[in-house]
Specification:
The protein has 205 residues and is mainly beta. Helix content is 6%, strand content 36%. The strands form 3 sheets. The chain has a 7-stranded parallel sheet with strand order 2-5-8-11-14-16-17, with no helix packed on it. A 5-stranded parallel sheet has the order 1-4-7-10-13, with no helix packed on it.
Length: 205
């Protein structure tokens, strides 16, 4: 139950459709380039979706597994270093849930992620968030206060989607226009490279 990368995606214009990535810590490395995941499952415990790609997950299942005693759970660790980088981890119409094994023991804190670098960017759009997510939503890296993170949520649903107790340095996307910046049309340059047999939403639902 330690670090073991199931996939390290290190190329531009990558598409993954109906795939399953199963690990614990550091399951999926979205290293660089533009990447699109549709109807996939990603399982893990700590920083299990990480890297510096411009990546959109659509209609995917993000499944959090039971960690070792004393650990807390973090879904993402995005490593954007400068304001000019066009990278980020985007979830649209996904489900964030616990595996059955974790559901039996909810004595672990779980967060959307922790900023890996100063300009880390993670956006959760129009997704179902189950009750496993801690009310704080996000956590800093080893006690360090992030400098310019963009950890944002827009129009999510479910028992974990209440944003009233989120950490003060996270961001609430309040406008449809701002949220549209993180769709396939805007964030992945309309996804013209996505294979024609793979369904996708260009815009917000």
């Amino acid at each position: 139950m330690f670090q073991a990368v199931a996939l390290s995606a290190q190329a531009d214009n990558l598409t993954f459709y109906q795939c399953r990535f199963k690990g614990y810590q550091d399951t999926l490395n979205t290293a660089f380039g533009k990447q699109f995941f549709r109807e996939c499952e990603v399982l893990g415990t700590i920083d299990f979706i990480f890297g510096d790609a411009a990546v959109v997950f659509q209609t995917c299942a993000i499944l959090v597994r039971k960690p070792l005693p004393g650990q807390y759970l973090t879904i993402t660790a995005q490593s954007r270093m400068t304001d000019g980088e066009k990278s980020g981890i985007i979830f649209q119409n996904c489900t964030v849930n616990a595996t059955e094994h974790l559901r039996k023991s909810y004595d672990f804190k779980c967060y959307f992620g922790r900023p890996w670098n100063d300009y880390s960017r993670v956006v959760v759009l129009q997704s179902f968030i189950d009750s496993l997510i801690d009310p704080k939503g996000w956590i800093e890296w080893e006690g360090q206060i992030p400098v310019h993170p963009f950890c944002a949520e827009f129009n999510n649903r479910g028992p974990g989607a209440n944003t009233s107790s989120r950490v003060t340095w996270s961001t609430m996307i309040i406008s449809h226009k701002q949220a549209s910046s993180f769709t396939v049309r805007r964030f992945l340059e309309s996804g013209t490279w996505i294979p024609p047999n793979v369904p996708y939403y260009l815009d917000l639902l």
